[in-house]
TrEMBL record:
PANTHER family: MHC CLASS I-RELATED, T-CELL SURFACE GLYCOPROTEIN CD1A. It holds the Pfam family MHC_I_3. This is T-cell surface glycoprotein CD1a-like. It comes from Vulpes vulpes. The chain crosses the membrane at residues 301-324. The keyword Glycoprotein applies. Keywords: Glycoprotein, Membrane, Signal, Transmembrane, Transmembrane helix.
Length: 358
């Protein structure tokens, strides 16, 4: 059981410098997942992501994009949006059809899943890179480079066959795809970055707290440092003793909250006696160059538990006993005065206890 306790004393100490993330590469990708159940039944799901922030959903029935942020349209005009929606919709119809058509040639067995990831990566100061990747059952199959499709090294003979036949399908399509990922995509992403500046460059301070739980090793404690609700994603967290980083620090995955902020847990197994003096350090761009430091404090000693919990119980029990004695003492005389006890018609206790004395 997790023994939850907030023992953190948050002290802001100088140290660490906030990094400027504006030069980090940014990736925009559209993900389409087609589940092909049988020859006549297909389900498509689409979404678009700016790094790890979802920007668009997709209604597979109407083919309309769902704009998840006010700035998700970028600087596209309504006309351009309609064209984009139509082309995305017709592509999503084409792709599964193509896999249905070739299911026997490519030895595909129903049900199966095909995933297409398409987009571009912007490296500031360098040319951007466009990509399209296609996966079958979660494994890379083919990818698009230099205006044509290439088999994935791990895709085997199926990948080579799919590649050959997809390249033969339509050369105009390949030209269009190339233009889409190398020309149109980077321009759209730049406009998204500009329109969404306020949300994308926001800084949200984390909340942090410490917990302790049982460790699989006997005599050890697991100290956990929880950091929650921060944005953007890069964060540095570690357990320290004084100024010394602790080697056994275990970092969990950075997990998303529904509001787009992030959560991380960083834990450390220590001998129970050595927990004192440890602290969890958090460095994040929202903290203005000052690390957040949470000091571990020993949970209350058994003696303290005794004083705080057991002593009042003992006192209460003592009081109850005393009251009971008093009540009994008070009641007894009334009871012994009661005449029926000496009633000769009823057998007295003495005769019952010692019938031999009669
Ligand atoms: C195809 O799969 C769908 C969904 O699983 C099912 O409802 C339908 O009956 C299947 N059709 C055939 C011909 O097997
Ligand atoms: C799939 O096959 C049908 C009928 O054979 C054909 O009309 C259609 O163009 C093919 N589609 C693709 C994407 O190959
Ligand atoms: C694509 O073209 C570039 C430049 O022409 C070349 O450096 C690169 O190797 C090519 N990639 C493939 C997979 O052929
Ligand atoms: C949208 O923004 C991009 C990047 O700033 C720019 O290159 C493009 O011309 C803009 N398009 C329109 C229609 O304004």
């Amino acid at each position: 059981m997790l023994f939850l306790q907030l023992v953190g004393l948050v002290v802001l100490l100088p140290g660490g410098d906030s990094e400027d993330d504006s030069q980090e590469p940014v990736a925009f990708q559209v993900i389409l997942t087609s589940s092909l159940y049988n020859r006549s039944s297909t389900r498509n799901q689409g979404s678009a992501w700016l790094d790890e922030l979802q920007t668009h959903g997709w209604d597979s029935k109407t083919g309309a994009f769902i704009f998840l942020w006010p700035w998700s349209t970028g600087n596209l005009s309504n006309e351009e949006l309609i064209i984009a929606e139509r082309s995305f919709y017709s592509n999503t119809i084409q792709l599964p059809l193509c896999f249905h058509n070739y299911s026997s040639d490519w030895q595909l067995e129903y049900p199966f899943q095909v995933q297409v990831t398409l987009g571009c990566e912007l490296h500031f100061g360098e040319p951007s890179v466009g990509f399209v990747r296609l996966a079958y059952q979660g494994e890379d199959l083919i990818s698009f480079q230099n205006k044509s499709w290439w088999p994935s090294p791990k895709g085997g003979s199926r990948a080579q066959q799919v590649c050959r036949q997809v390249n033969e399908l339509d050369h105009d399509d390949n030209e269009l795809t190339h233009e889409l990922i190398t020309g149109y995509c980077p321009r759209f992403v730049l406009s998204l970055l500009d329109a969404g500046k306020a949300d994308l460059q926001r800084q949200v301070r984390p909340e942090a707290w410490l917990c302790t739980g049982p460790s699989p090793r006997s005599g050890h404690l697991r100290l956990a440092c929880h950091i929650s609700g921060f944005y953007p994603k890069p964060v540095w967290v570690t357990w320290m003793r004084g100024e010394q980083e602790q080697q056994g620090t275990q970092r969990g995955d950075v997990l998303p909250h529904a509001d787009g902020t992030w959560y991380l847990q960083v834990s450390l197994d220590v001998k129970a006696k050595e927990a004192a003096g440890l602290s969890c350090w958090v460095r994040h761009s929202s903290l203005g160059g000052q690390d957040m430091v949470l000091h571990w404090e020993q949970p209350p000693f058994m003696g303290l538990v005794f004083l705080v919990v057991i002593m009042p119980l003992v006192l209460l029990a003592g009081l109850a006993w005393w009251l009971w004695k008093r009540w009994k003492a008070h009641w007894r005389p009334q009871c012994t005065d009661f005449p029926s006890e000496q009633d000769p018609s009823s057998p007295g206790p003495r005769t019952d206890l010692n019938p031999a004395q009669r």
